[in-house]
Amino acid sequence: MNKLNILTFPDPRLRKKATPIDVFDIELKKMAEAMLYTMYKSNGIGLAATQVDFHKRLIVIDVSEEQNEPLFLVNPEFTVLDETIEQYKEGCLSIPTFYEEIYRPKKIELRFQTLEGKHESVIAEGILSVCVQHEIDHLEGKLMVDYLSPLKRDRIKNKLVKKKDATN
Ligand code: QAP
Ligand code: CO
């Protein structure tokens, strides 16, 4: 399988808003499998289609130890069930090597469609809740650095731009 190219902050394509999926065909399944492969190869636990320059509402997540419990989320949405704010040191495959404490509501109800178009819902807490919220942000063109101060965000941006220049 081919590993997809992951966009890196501050690539402007990470700011595009993804559109809903209405065709549940073999092409969608292929894209989801390619994203899962890319995520596992990159040692990630979540990847949104936006990050691989595909601007549709598709997310893959696997928060299991063994990387054997993939979740494919099409057109995901959530509502907050417990507004208590929890902090988690988050990373992002589009912001490599940076980890920051981010604050989000604790408990959510996630609704999504499967790759076959079936509607499902689950209640999530802990790392799954964090990951779902982080990935749905990507579909809106939002990044975890947007929750940081402009100063911190700019420092991260400058370091990543310098690293990219060094490899180009
Ligand atoms: C989002 O993030 C997330 O910097 C998914 O060098 C993070 O998979 C949700 C990664 C934390 C919940 C909690 C980051 C891999 C992976 C890096 C990721 C890196 C290599 C990030
Ligand atoms: Co991310």
From TrEMBL:
Top EC class for this record: hydrolase
Known EC number: 3.5.1.88
Cofactor: Fe(2+)
Keyword list, A-Z: Hydrolase, Iron, Metal-binding, Protein biosynthesis
Active site: E135
Record-stated family: Belongs to the polypeptide deformylase family.
Gene Ontology molecular function: metal ion binding; peptide deformylase activity
Protein name (Swiss-Prot/TrEMBL): Peptide deformylase
Superkingdom of this protein's organism: Bacteria
Cross-referenced InterPro entries: Peptide_deformylase, Peptide_deformylase_sf
NCBIfam families in alphabetical order: pept_deformyl, PRK00150.1-3
Catalytic activity: N-terminal N-formyl-L-methionyl-[peptide] + H2O = N-terminal L-methionyl-[peptide] + formate
